[in-house]
């Protein structure tokens, strides 16, 4: 498919920006309108965590969807989606720190060690931080090939986020199972595509290409 113009991409990004802010707007409205239920903190925690996971998976879906339908311009939306995933993950963590633990750091440390679902979620959030910091064009140029290696951490981040949700839910695991299946499909698509693009050993030897690790 032909590349879209910069003007069109900008318009799409504006729409994407508004769409990604909609869950936050609904939470703010619900807080003042009193429509978040009997436990508003639990509702806010659930919604921010759910949207962090959804946007994380959407970030991973960009490359396979681009290959499938032939829309190369989708790559220009990936950074925006990824940063919104971090934004909602940060809100999710902040709600936990402020309203659940009141910044009681010793108790927080005990919880992280004792509760597997919290360990997985904390791991994913902490590893997301360097990816968010290095998301600029300047950092991409400065890090070179190391930038791509660093941002491959999105795969264990997504796995940790899915585990966090799966272990957190005690009864109906149908929704976290769905997200786990989506992640499995995306990982298969990603690594299957990498294997297809990797030259065979014989061909690599003929062309003087060193096999990747």
Short account of what is shown:
With 213 residues, this protein is an all-alpha fold. The chain has helices at residues 6-33, 40-69, 75-100, 105-114, 116-133, 137-143, 145-151, 154-168, 174-197, 201-207.
Molecular structure report:
This protein has one domain (6-195). With 213 residues, it is an all-alpha fold. It has helices spanning 6-33, 40-69, 75-100, 105-114, 116-133, 137-143, 145-151, 154-168, 174-197, 201-207. The longest helix has 30 residues, at 40-69. Mean pLDDT is 87; it is low at 200-213. The chain is globular, with a radius of gyration of 20 Å. The chain is built from ten helices and no strands.
Helix percentage range:
over 70%
Which term fits the overall shape? globular
- The count of strands amounts to 0
What value does the average pLDDT take?
Answer: 87
Count of separate structural domains: 1
What is the CA-based Rg, rounded? Answer: 20 Å
Helix-strand category? mainly alpha
Q: Tally the helices.
A: 10
Major sheet description: none
> Low-confidence segments, ≥5 residues, pLDDT <50?
200-213
User: What is the rounded distance between the termini?
Assistant: 33 Å
Share of β-strand residues? under 5%
Query: What is the N-to-C order of secondary-structure elements (H for helix, E for strand)?
Result: HHHHHHHHHH
List keywords for this structure.
213 residues, globular, mainly alpha
Which SSEs are present, and which pair or pack?
Elements: H1 6-33, H2 40-69, H3 75-100, H4 105-114, H5 116-133, H6 137-143, H7 145-151, H8 154-168, H9 174-197, H10 201-207
Helix pairs in contact: 1-2, 1-3, 2-3, 2-8, 2-9, 3-5, 4-5, 5-8, 6-7, 8-9
């Amino acid at each position: 498919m032909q590349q879209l113009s910069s003007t069109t991409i900008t318009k799409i990004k504006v729409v994407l920006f508004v769409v990604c802010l909609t869950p936050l707007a609904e939470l703010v409205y619900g807080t003042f309108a009193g429509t978040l239920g009997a436990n508003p903190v639990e509702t806010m925690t659930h919604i921010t965590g759910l949207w962090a996971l959804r946007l994380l998976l959407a970030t991973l879906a960009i490359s396979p969807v681009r290959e499938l339908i032939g829309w190369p311009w989708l790559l220009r939306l990936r950074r925006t989606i990824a940063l919104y995933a971090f934004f909602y993950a940060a809100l999710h963590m902040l709600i936990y720190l402020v309203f659940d633990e009141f910044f009681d750091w010793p108790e927080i440390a005990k919880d992280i060690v004792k509760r597997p679902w919290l360990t997985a979620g904390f791991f994913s959030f902490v590893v997301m931080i360097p990816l968010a910091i290095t998301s600029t064009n300047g950092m991409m140029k400065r890090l070179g090939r190391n930038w791509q290696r660093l941002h491959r951490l999105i795969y264990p981040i997504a796995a940790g986020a899915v585990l966090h949700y799966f272990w957190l839910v005690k009864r109906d695991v149908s929704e976290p199972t769905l997200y786990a299946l989506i992640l499995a499909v995306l990982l298969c698509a990603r690594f299957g595509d990498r294997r297809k693009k990797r030259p065979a050993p014989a061909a690599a030897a003929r062309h003087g290409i060193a096999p990747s690790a």
